[in-house]
Amino acid sequence: MNSPGRTTLWLILSILIWSVSPLPNARPVLASSVHLCAQSGPSAQSSMQTPQDKDRSEPPKPEPGRQTLAAERELIAWYEATLPHFRSAGDPAGEAYTLLTIAETYLQMGEKQQALETCNRALSLTLNHSRPQELAQTLRRIASICESLGEKQKAMEADTKALSFFRTAKNRQGEANTLRHLGVLSNALGERPQALDYYNQSLPLFREVKDRNGEAAVLHQMGKLFFELGEKQKALDYLAGALPLTRATNNREGEARTRQLIGEVYQSLGENQKALAQYQQALSIWQEVGNSRAEAAVRKRMAKLKADD
Questions:
Q1: What share of the chain is helix, strand, coil (3-state, %, to 5)?
Q2: Distance (Å, rounded) from C-alpha 102 to C-alpha 78?
Q3: CB of 242 within 8 A of CB of 259?
């Protein structure tokens, strides 16, 4: 195996070992990857880039509690130590991707501002050296962090830029995901006509790439939006369109959320028996998947419904 290939392998192994083993076990592995990065030269660029053919517009969500705070800080220190080697090897893509990994670790630790600053460092590297796909992915991560910080307008700005780069890269999946997220952000900002426009743009793209989960999510969000606008029959129509898609993809939580919202619409219309039937089906699914909080919320609605009868 050539040096760039070994570099990639060592980095993957270091991450895996770090996630499942005590911290010191990962040190020699990550140290080896640093050494290989220094030796591999510019040809390592391609091995260290994010996969170009796979949409990674929705950032990963690490499991909480997997590492101690001290271990996470030491992990960041190790990743920071690799950065000069990427620079000396002339590999800005590898440096940027490592920075994004550091940002995600900060995010897992709850240090959102540090995560955002690190993402911006990555973005400054990718602006002059990356392909549109990489720029779009970086901007999507920045948008996600901004949203978690409550900076929805900044998230909108980052997503709008990401959308342009996804279109340049002809990444229809990334474009669809970004449009949907722009719809969510617009709705949260009270810009409902704009939200509907984004949802309507994303819907045919999800159908084009045969992403039924994405399509179901958009239909659900449109149903929710029309319900908030008081257009209850339209809401039911869109939610009815989402339901078979969630079942076809075995998206149990998606089905439960949709059934619960359908129940709320029926309840608002005074059709209590239809509402109760939807709540009961949602309740069964929440029990099945072990979501006690959602189960409690449905039980509360059912109790109110029965009290009103």
A1: 80, 0, 20
A2: 10
A3: no
* 149 contacts 185 by C-beta, under 8 angstroms: no
Residue 133: CB atoms within 10 Å: 24
- Tokens at 89, concatenated: 């090897």
Q: How large is the angle between the packed helices 172-188 and 212-228, nearest 10 degrees? A: 20
Q: What is the CA radius of gyration of the chain?
A: 23
Match 């549109």 to its residue by tokens: 132
Look up residue 54 and give its two tokens: 């796979």
DSSP 83-98: HHHHHHTT-HHHHHHH
Contacts of residue 160, defined as CB under 8 A and 6 or more positions apart, other chains included, come to 182
- CA 129 remoteness from chain centre: 25
Cα angle at 185 between 204 and 183, to 5 degrees?
A: 15
Q: In the CATH scheme, what is the code of domain 135-209? A: 1.25.40.10
The rounded distance, in Å, linking the Cα atoms of 217 and 239 is 10
Instruction: Identify which of 18, 126, 20 has the alpha carbon closest to the alpha carbon of residue 76.
Output: 18
pLDDT (tens, 9 = 90+) of the chain, 309 residues, equals 444 443 454 455 455 444 444 444 344 444 444 444 434 443 333 333 333 333 434 433 444 444 578 888 888 888 999 899 888 888 887 888 888 889 888 888 888 889 888 888 888 887 776 788 888 988 898 888 888 888 899 899 999 999 999 999 999 999 999 999 999 999 999 999 999 999 999 999 999 999 999 999 999 999 999 999 999 999 999 999 999 999 999 999 999 999 999 999 999 999 999 999 999 999 999 999 999 999 999 999 999 888 876
55-61 contacts, C-beta under 8 A, 24 or more apart = 55/171, 55/173, 55/174, 55/177, 56/137, 56/140, 57/136, 57/137, 57/140, 57/162, 57/166, 57/173, 57/174, 57/177, 57/178, 58/140, 58/144, 58/177, 59/104, 59/140, 59/141, 59/144, 59/145, 60/104
